[in-house]
Amino acid sequence: RKQRIKTFVLLIVLYAIILLWLWTYDTFIFKIFLLVATVITTFHFLFIDKLRYIKLYKNHINQNFKSKIGIETIVNFHEENIDLNTEFGENKIFYSSLEAVEETSEYYLFKIKTGDRFAIPKRSIDNKEEFILLINKISDRFNIKVIKELNWKWK
Fold first, then answer.
1. For range 37-51, the mean pLDDT
2. I need a labelling partner for 139 at 20 to 30 A (CA). Which of 80, 117, 118, 154 fits?
3. Distance between CA 143 and CA 99 in Å, rounded?
4. Number of alpha carbons in the 13 Å side-chain half-sphere of residue 127
5. How many Å apart are CA 15 and CA 22, to the nearest integer?
6. What is the largest CA-CA distance in the chain?
């Protein structure tokens, strides 16, 4: 997003400089051409480019995480670690390797220090109050950040 904004501002400044330079000459057709190019570029960056990035991001997720999405996992919390059991095998994640727990309106996302994450849908939690107490206990004991982004939405 920052790169898109930086490029957009750079193009607008460039167009403004060229427009000011052309304004000193009596070339009406070039002024109209540059004005139309500015409008087209603005439209492109505000709408079309954003849709392109969303499509690229979705393709990236589908290619890299296809095998992880939708797999039913049994999650067991123990004293020192979390066990994740799937049809493919078992993973053990120690609490000391957790960087943060992010809470959104629909999920709890556990961020591991290696950069990976795993999600637990809130709808699959039977006892929500007990789960919140467990998360708070783990975060206090192992110094894990708890980030609440309950209004988070795809932009």
1. 77
2. 154
3. 9
4. 5
5. 10
6. 79
Cα dihedral angle (136, 141, 144, 145), rounded to 10 degrees? 50
Token reading at 26: 């009596």
Portion of the chain with pLDDT greater than 70, in percent: 94
Identity of residue 66: K
Q: Which two tokens stand for residue 25?
A: 């000459």
Helices (H), 2-155: 2-23, 28-43, 49-65, 128-142
Q: Is the pLDDT of residue 88 over 90?
A: no
Q: HSE of 99 in the Cβ direction (CA atoms, 13 Å)?
A: 9
How many Å apart are CA 24 and CA 38, to the nearest integer?
19
Q: Among residues 87, 97, 108, 100, which one has the least CA distance to residue 150?
A: 108
Residue 20: per-residue pLDDT? 76
CA dist 95 and 141 (Å) reads: 9
| Residue written as token pair 């220090």 | 113
Question: Cα separations (Å) of 86 from 71, 118, 120?
Answer: 7, 13, 13
| pLDDT exceeds cutoff 60 at 145 | yes
